[in-house]
């Protein structure tokens, strides 16, 4: 009997055999019968019968009977890049982590079945060279209409380090945004917030200013806002700001700014008027001597329409000169 052979990479080490097999096969009937195939020795490990729950080691050979693969069903290929026309700007890349410039107008994760998202594009273009089961994927979210720096895992090492350091606030995220009204001095907003549910087919977040009246399910949110320049848009005051979030809550910037009567200009979900809002994930800063050998910071330039808004309405000829 002929067998196809798949070699476990370093990111497969410590994973259960049956869970890795589910990633190798794509046909649902195979996934549902993995234990039976292992018992019948149609799937073997290093040439011998094994158990579905065995933990893999790097270099293990997973052998699957060739007839299990239909002509239209292929196993995962170990590629570092499967296309050349990657649609997003690559800001930084190494074997463990990738940083891209996400454009506004696309979801990081699909909102509906079959929808093109950053996650689906990443999956189509990249696979891990160190794993049969690990799939590169975005490590955090940006709203659909938010642009800027987005981190993508390229290995388990990269995924774990970034997630742990985001949780411990050792990785700092800095945004640029246009807010309604005038903000004339740096402010730090320390509030709490929770999901307020569905409103007009869109889930918003409720803010408890200075944590007053907060519920048991509300979580702390801390945001620092530094004004850069104020001006007029449609005869109303607006302020271009640098915003640093010390926590990472859903809609944190949008909800907290709205709660203080400074919603993002054009953010209709939070009372900022109609049109398009400008919120850009400008920069991510990293601790020194990090094991991923990341630079001190990774920055994503403003998109052209944001830059044009600043030139037209705030008379900022080059945003690079003032940020």
From TrEMBL:
One protein family per Pfam: PseudoU_synth_2
Entry's Gene3D superfamilies? Pseudouridine synthase, RNA-binding S4 domain
Q: Which E.C. number(s) belong to this protein?
A: 5.4.99.24
Q: Which UniProt keywords apply?
A: Isomerase, RNA-binding
In the record, biological process GO terms are: enzyme-directed rRNA pseudouridine synthesis
Domain Pseudouridine synthase RsuA/RluA-like intervals: 97-258
SUPFAM superfamilies named in the record: Pseudouridine synthase
Q: Top-level EC class, please? A: isomerase
Under the GO molecular function aspect, what terms does this record hold?
23S rRNA pseudouridine(955/2504/2580) synthase activity; RNA binding
PANTHER family reported for this sequence: MITOCHONDRIAL RNA PSEUDOURIDINE SYNTHASE, RNA PSEUDOURIDYLATE SYNTHASE DOMAIN-CONTAINING PROTEIN 1
Similarity-based family = Belongs to the pseudouridine synthase RluA family.
Name recorded for this polypeptide: 23S rRNA pseudouridine955/2504/2580 synthase
């Amino acid at each position: 009997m002929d067998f196809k052979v798949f070699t476990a990479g370093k990111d497969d080490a410590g994973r259960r055999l049956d869970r890795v097999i589910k990633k190798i096969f794509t046909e649902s009937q195979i996934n549902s019968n993995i234990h039976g195939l292992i018992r019948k020795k149609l799937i073997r490990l290093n040439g011998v019968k094994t158990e579905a729950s065995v933990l893999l080691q790097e270099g293990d050979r997973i052998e699957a009977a060739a007839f299990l693969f239909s002509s239209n069903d292929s196993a995962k290929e170990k590629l570092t890049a499967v296309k050349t026309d990657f649609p997003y700007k690559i800001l930084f890349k190494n074997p463990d982590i990738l940083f891209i410039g996400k454009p506004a107008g696309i979801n990081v994760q699909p909102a509906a079945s079959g929808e093109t998202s950053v996650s689906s594009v990443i999956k189509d273009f990249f696979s891990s060279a160190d794993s049969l089961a690990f799939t590169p994927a975005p490590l955090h979210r940006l709203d659909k209409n938010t642009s800027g720096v987005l981190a993508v895992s390229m290995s388990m090492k990269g995924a774990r380090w970034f997630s742990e350091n985001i949780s411990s606030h050792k990785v700092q995220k800095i945004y640029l945004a246009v807010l309604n009204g005038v903000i004339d001095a740096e402010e730090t907003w320390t509030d709490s917030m929770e999901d307020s549910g569905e409103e007009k087919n869109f889930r918003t977040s409720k803010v408890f200013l200075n944590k007053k009246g907060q519920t048991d399910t509300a979580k702390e949110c801390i945001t620092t806002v530094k004004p850069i320049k104020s001006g007029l848009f449609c005869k109303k005051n607006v302020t271009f700001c640098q915003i640093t979030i010390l926590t990472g809550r859903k809609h944190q910037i949008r909800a907290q700014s709205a709660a203080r009567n400074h919603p993002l200009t054009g953010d209709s979900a939070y009372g900022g008027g109609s049109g398009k809002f400008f919120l850009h994930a400008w920069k991510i800063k990293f601790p020194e001597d990090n094991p991923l050998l990341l630079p001190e910071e990774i920055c994503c330039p403003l998109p052209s329409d944001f830059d044009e808004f600043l030139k037209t309405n705030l008379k900022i000829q080059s945003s690079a000169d003032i940020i």
